[in-house]
Amino acid sequence: MVKHPTIRDLAQAAGVSISTENRVINNSESVRQPTRELTMSVAQEIGFFGLSTIRHVIHARRESFRFGILLLQKHRRFYASLALALTQAAITKALER
C-alpha cells in the first residue's frame, strides 16, 4: 500500500513547522505570501493528497456576498445606468479580494 504524504511530511519538505503548515491550510493572514507559495509548490512536488482540500478550504472560507437590484423602470436611462454602475463597482470590488 502506498503511503500518502501527511501534513508532517509536507511541513518537513517545505522546511516549515507543522503549525505554519496548518496556518497555510487555514488561510491565516499571519503567513507570508512567499511561505504560502513555497508550501503549495512543495505540496504539488511531493504529491500531498490534501492539496485540493487545501484549495477548497481556502476558497470556502472566503466571504461571499450577494446583492440584487430591483428596478421598476429599468428601461429608463438613469436607472439602467445606475444598475450598470452598481454592478461594475461590485465586480471591481470582488476582483480586489
What is the chain-wise order of helices and strands? HHHHH
Helix content: 55-70%
Mean pLDDT: 82
Oligomer state of the chains in this structure: single chain
Helix/sheet category: mainly alpha
In this structure, how is the largest beta sheet organized? none
Distance separating the two termini: 42 Å
Please write out the topology:
Elements: H1 7-14, H2 18-25, H3 33-46, H4 51-60, H5 77-96
Describe the structure concisely for a colleague:
By secondary structure, the protein is mainly alpha-helical. The chain is 62% helix and 0% strand.
What does this structure look like?
- This protein is mostly helical.
- It folds into two domains: 54 residues, no CATH class; 33 residues.
- The protein contains five helices and no strands.
Give the tags.
single chain, 2 domains, 5 helices
